UniProtKB/TrEMBL annotation:
It comes from the Bacteria. This is Tetratricopeptide repeat protein. TPR repeats lie at residues 24-57. The keyword Signal applies. The keyword Repeat does not apply.
Length: 307
């Protein structure tokens, strides 16, 4: 389970800080909407908008999905540019790029072969363009230590508290000096739960990150996992079952909730943290909607545009 969570974090959370994060995320939601509608031209248009607004888009998948659509539209030049940027801007792993499902039909294209052949040089370019290489390397070291003690359960039990404590203090120092580094999320996650012993952590990070959200340097949904975890813990402690606040699809849903708190206002809460209406999950993936959930599907595009 620990390895699965780590893999999820490494794939989902980018390696460097960014700007215009939520402005870019809105374009990605619209791209996903048009992709589901099989409108390739519109899908590519919104993916390219997302990338232009914020080259450090949330995940490298955006570059790769956009590249596959460019190939499909016979725009191989744009496809190659996107593949290149998936490495220089997001450091898409080599094997991940090779095995990306929607790119498999184009694996023998000249453009794909050329980018893969240049992978090492493009990887080096990513590191050369880092805004704060010192912060990046120090956080890499913190993450390496964090994961080393989690390889063996016996070592984890003995050293986790001390190591997590030292890591978070060092992370505070780095954040004060260089700003928030997105990959550090996994270090902060070990201090989830707004409890008394974690007060010193959240007295610093909560106002700091809330300010970064206001400046659009951090996505509006940053605290969703943490809030869901805290709510789940309260339910567990108090033997209540209030349900999830925003989504069931979160690491914070430790009670495996299948219901929502105050479902009539669910979409209002979701919008407040930058999440689209719950119906969007059903629209994209066919997920079952709660029986008490009400939504007019005709409003979806407008709601995505007005997030």
């Amino acid at each position: 389970m620990k390895k699965i969570i780590l893999l999820f974090i490494l794939l989902v959370f980018p390696l460097a800080s960014a700007q215009n994060v939520f402005k870019s995320q809105k374009q990605i939601y619209l791209a996903e909407y048009y992709a589901h509608q099989k409108n390739d031209q519109k899908t590519l248009e919104y993916y390219l908008k997302a990338i232009k607004i914020n080259p450090k888009v949330p995940i490298s998948d955006v570059y790769l999905e956009a590249a596959s659509i460019s190939f499909k539209l016979k725009n191989n030049k744009t496809a190659k540019e996107l593949l290149t940027q998936s490495i220089t801007k997001q450091l898409a792993p080599l094997d991940f790029l090779k095995d990306f499902e929607s790119l498999k039909p184009y694996k023998d294209s000249k453009e794909m072969k050329e980018v893969l052949a240049q992978y090492n040089d493009l990887e080096n370019q990513y590191y050369r363009e880092l805004k704060n290489p010192a912060a990046y390397m120090e956080i890499q070291n913190l993450i390496a230590t964090d994961q080393l003690i989690r390889k063996e359960d016996k070592v984890f039990g003995k050293l986790s508290k001390e190591t997590d404590s030292m890591n978070i203090i060092k992370l505070m120092e780095l954040t004060k000096k260089y700003g928030w580094e997105s990959r550090a999320w996994m270090l902060l996650w070990h201090h989830r739960g707004y409890t008394d012993d974690q007060k010193f952590v959240w007295d610093f990070f909560k106002p700091y990150l809330e300010n970064e959200i206001k400046k659009d340097n951090v996505n509006k949904d940053f605290f969703v996992d943490f809030d869901e975890f805290d709510s789940s813990m309260n339910d567990f402690t108090n033997k209540t079952n209030k349900g999830s606040l925003y989504t069931l699809q979160t690491l914070g849903n430790i009670n495996h909730n299948t219901t929502y708190f105050d479902i009539k206002n669910l979409d209002k809460r979701r919008k407040s943290v930058g999440l689209p209406p719950l119906y969007f999950e059903h629209f994209l993936y066919g997920s079952e909607l709660p029986k008490d959930y009400q939504y007019n599907p005709e409003n979806l595009l407008k709601d995505l545009e007005n997030l």
